[in-house]
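Risk register update: the risk of archive-format incompatibility is retired. Evidence:
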Amino acid sequence: MNRELLAGMAGRRIAVIGDVMLDRYLIGDIERISPEAPVPVVRVTERRHSPGGAANVAANLAALGAEPLLVGLIGDDPAGRDLRTALAARGIDAGRLTPTPNRPTTTKTRVVARGQQVVRVDEEEIGPVDLPTTTALIRAIETAVAGAAAVVLEDYDKGSLNQATIPAALVAARARGIPIVVDPKFAHFFTYIGATLFKPNRRELAAALGPGRDPDDSSELRSLLERLQAEHLLVTLGADGMRLLSRSGADHRIAGQAREVFDVSGAGDTVTAWVAAALAGGATALDAAMLANAAAAIEVGKRGVATVTPAEVLALLEGGGNERAETGAAGRRGISLSARFPGD
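Archived output:
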């Protein structure tokens, strides 16, 4: 079953719409404290850059054998050129990215010394996107969705997804009857109505629910599911795995599988990519979530923002055996994908 699911994901065209970024890494060693301030001096010995945000979702899709159709904003600047180069190296077409001469490419620079992140520097513009740029984004969205088997909306509150582009993407996807996977942030949390699978992390969920509301309470989650009119709510819980609730009434807890956590950067993007590709390939939401859970366990064991291959996931799944646990309101399930449950 695992091999069949993975084979069904290969070659699927997935529209990835959202906030693209460039992840830069300055890697070196600490030898002394600065005489100018009580901060370490990092002597940089290596520089790397890779796709981040929605571009990292696209990179994960490419790594698992799908074809990402990436849509978002990109600056006309050195960071934008580096991002295009990084995408090209992964076989990803950057032709659907909308250039924005008045906005920089969102860039996250991480300084890493002795295997530990010392500081992160963000360069970005999060103000409203002008009308001509929004119009160009909508055209790119409609073109990408027209050729896709699923749609990902990857929101980092940087402007690509807004009150105009979100409805345009949802309408286009619904017209085609294809799965819609939403990775939300707070600003537009309740704008995404009617998704196939809505995927917040626990912190985002708690912020959306507001003070005094329990993000672990089943009735709260059921109420949210109905308000969003989503088919499935997948809450990522870090080391504790995931929780998947469906409008059918199903409620599954999926145990975390990470054996060693090196760096959690990009794990959420990995989950989003694997869920979307699996749904596009015909998997149930539960099987899609379990594949994504395995992929995330592998990703957090790698340095920096990284991708995961089908071979790596297959090795983890097949190495985990077929042990199962009860599912339900308080149940957990392991990594076998061979069973089906009522309502899946």
